[in-house]
Amino acid sequence: MHNPLRPKLRAKQTTYGLWVTVEAPSITEAAAALELDWVCIDMEHGHLGFHHVIEHLRALRGSSTAAVVRVPGIEMSSIKRALDMGAHGVIVPYIQSAEEAETAFRYGRFPPRGVRGVSGDRAVQWGLASQEYLASADEETLIIPLIETRGAVAEIDAILDIQGLEAIFFGPADFSASHGFLGEWEGPGMAESILQIRAKADAKGIAAGVLSRSIEDSIRRRDQGFGMVGLGADLPLLIRAIRENLASLTNS
Q: Which member of 84, 96, 162, 210 lies 3.0 to 4.6 Å from 170 by CB, making a disulfide possible if both were Cys?
């Protein structure tokens, strides 16, 4: 197994990705054609199931774009199934503590560190490449905690000390909501808190990711030192482009 995202993060490169929320694997195929560094296939919100995930993963075959799946929760079944299908990593939502983050790692690692079972599915080419995969999977697979709660902030130092942690990802909207600012992307003090945590992670060689909301925001996140910059989600990007086009036509 080779994860094309890991060497870029270790080299502190800024990587760019797309958040995938719709069924059509053509979206992911286009992301690969654009040579994006990664896509995140979102199973936590919306309607995507594993039958959609597998098609998005197949769309990346032969490309240099890494596949990350945001699983529905801290669940053994969803983490191991996403990895068995061939994902390069998982983003695990609603991490509240170092203990929960470590649980996610145990679900995504083989023994003796973890409890992930050995399968004969797509990741090992249906058994044809089992030994090669097992020899490298624990090192190559990214387990990425989503930092989006007050609990995670309170335990961030312990979370960042977890063995093998290479990246974290921020959810600014839920981060704000958990601090009493429901409906705000970054409520009062939240932007500063996120940047403080990012700096702590960077000091330990851990990359940080965040989803941007505009071109200007993407540039700002790049300049702030985020290693994973989401350029946006598929449908919101489409809506934004259509609105800009319509506004230009209306005002011309």
A: 210
Say yes or no to pLDDT of 252 above 80.
no
CB-side exposure of 222: number of CA atoms within 13 Å? 13
Return d(Cα 85, Cα 157) in angstroms, integer.
32
Q: How many domains does the chain have?
A: 1
Catalytic residue numbers read 45
Bridge partners (DSSP) of residue 145 are 92
* Distance (Å, whole) CA 207 – CA 10: 8
Packed helices 50-59 and 25-33: angle between N→C axes, nearest 10 degrees:
30
- The CA distance from 17 to 79, in Å, is 21
| Domain annotation covers residue 182 | yes
Residue 56 within a domain: yes
Dump pLDDT digits (tens) for 40-75: 999 999 999 999 999 999 999 999 999 999 999 999
Can you tell me the distance from the alpha carbon of 208 to that of 23, in angstroms, rounded to the nearest whole number? Answer: 27
- Which residue segment(s) compose the domain that 24 sits in? 6-251
Residue at 226 is within a domain: yes
pLDDT, tens only, 134-155: 999 999 999 999 999 999 999 9
The answer to whether residue 50 sits within a structural domain is yes
